[in-house]
Amino acid sequence: MPTLPPEPSQEQSQKPSQKQPQKQPLAQPQAQKLAQPQEQPQAQELAQELAQPQEQEQPQPQEQELAQNQPQEQPLAQELAQAQDQPREQDQAREQAQNQARAADAAAVSGRLGGPDAHGGSDRPGASGGGDPHRRREMAESFGADPGLYDRARPRYPDSLIDAVVASAPGVAVLDVGCGTGIAARQFQAAGCRVLGVEVDERMAAFARSTGVEVEVSAFETWDPAGRTFDALVAGMTWHWIDPAAGAAKAAAVLKPGGRFAVFWYVLQPPPDLGAAFAAVHREVLPDSPVDSRVAASPLGAYEHFLDRAADSLTTTGAFTDLERPTYPWSRSYTRDEWLDQLRTSGIAKPLADLGKLDEMLERTGAAIDAAGGSFTLDSTAVALTATRA
After folding, report:
1. Is 45 part of a structural domain of the chain?
2. Residue 93 and residue 145: Cα distance in Å, rounded?
3. H/E stretch holding 257
4. Of 27, 222, 272, 274, which one's alpha carbon is 20 to 30 angstroms from that of 257?
5. Residue 43 — very low, low, confident or very high, per pLDDT cuts 50/70/90?
6. 47 within domain boundaries
7. What is the DSSP letter of 118?
8. Nearest residue to 239 via CA among 146, 186, 351, 314
């Protein structure tokens, strides 16, 4: 009978069960150590190592140096450009200031002192447009709002001026440039002339036609004479609205040999005391607008710019001779209402209305006339430039 192995003792049977529990606790910490503490730091370190080379490769310091150098070059170029432009800008500023001064002087003597503005077009006043009013023709074209009031309020030209032009012309065919409502045209008609007017404003032209003046609507520079020529070309209070070079060339083209060129402006001078009162009113209503008291005392000088420019443009064509600058003094009495009516048609009226100050200007000017007795006699001078077509 085979011998059976002896049964293990109780101590031997318990040892294996004690060893297994010891292995399990050891295995878990090792797995955790490999899975968590070791893998995460390695991944982070790897990511940091990969990121560091990329950051180091960016040439930030060099780019910053380049960026800093570029602004240094731009100011240098700007300084050179500014240095070159400074003399040109100074010349332009000086010329603009001189033109504005001339325009302000002309406006001061008339429109800004309560009379017709020296910058009028179609025997109509205009606004100061620097030394080149022809570039502001839209202002001239704004005076047809009330042609009836304009025609009634604006003064006529001295008979001596009309007679002198008629006597010096070789015939009776007269071209009136910028005829407006036909004030000068009717005076030449009354002196025996056959007049054709050229007017840019249809409203003014329509009124002139209603008084018996033949008018064609056009800017003079672009007007088509259709082969017609004339014995005299006249322009009352308008020639400054015409481009100097183009106007002189067109005048030479439409005048017959020996034909008379005559452009003229009237200069209105209130009595000294009333003129000073008008100037004071202007300063109160428009304190920022310059009024030269010397011009108010001698307004004729303010028109020299118009005469100079017209004479230069005629001389440049080589087509005119016998340039002269005659003057024609005359007088007229004004009531308070008559003066305020012509002020409503002056070049200063629209700017004042736009500023909401026209009523104040009219009221204060009327009060000044009332304080002087309600009426006054105005001594005026008409200035002209005349020439003969060679």
Report:
1. no
2. 35
3. strand 255-269
4. 222
5. very low
6. no
7. T
8. 314
CATH number of the domain at 140, please. Answer: 3.40.50.150
Least reliable range by pLDDT among 8-17, 219-228, 239-248: 8-17
Give the angle subtended at the CA of 273 by the CAs of 272 and 275, to the nearest 5°.
60
306: three-class secondary structure by DSSP: helix
CA distance 186 to 211: 8
Counting the structural domains of the chain, the total is: 1
Q: 10 Å Cβ neighbour count for 163? A: 13
If DSSP codes are grouped into helix, strand and coil, which group holds residue 148? helix
pLDDT in tens, 168-212: 999 999 999 999 999 999 999 999 999 999 999 999 999 999 999
- What pLDDT does residue 237 have? 93
Distances (CA, A) of 167 to 188, 261, 326: 11, 12, 14
The model scores a pTM over 0.70: no
Name the least confident of 48-52, 91-95, 176-180, 218-222: 48-52
| pLDDT for the residue numbered 347 | 79
Asked whether 382 and 161 are in contact (CB, 8 A), the reply is yes
User: Which domain, by its residues, includes 153?
Assistant: 108-389
For tokens 């056009």, what's the residue?
218
Place of tokens 């440039």: 177
Q: Which residues, in sequence order, are bridge partners of residue 382?
A: 266, 328
Q: Is residue 86 part of a domain?
A: no
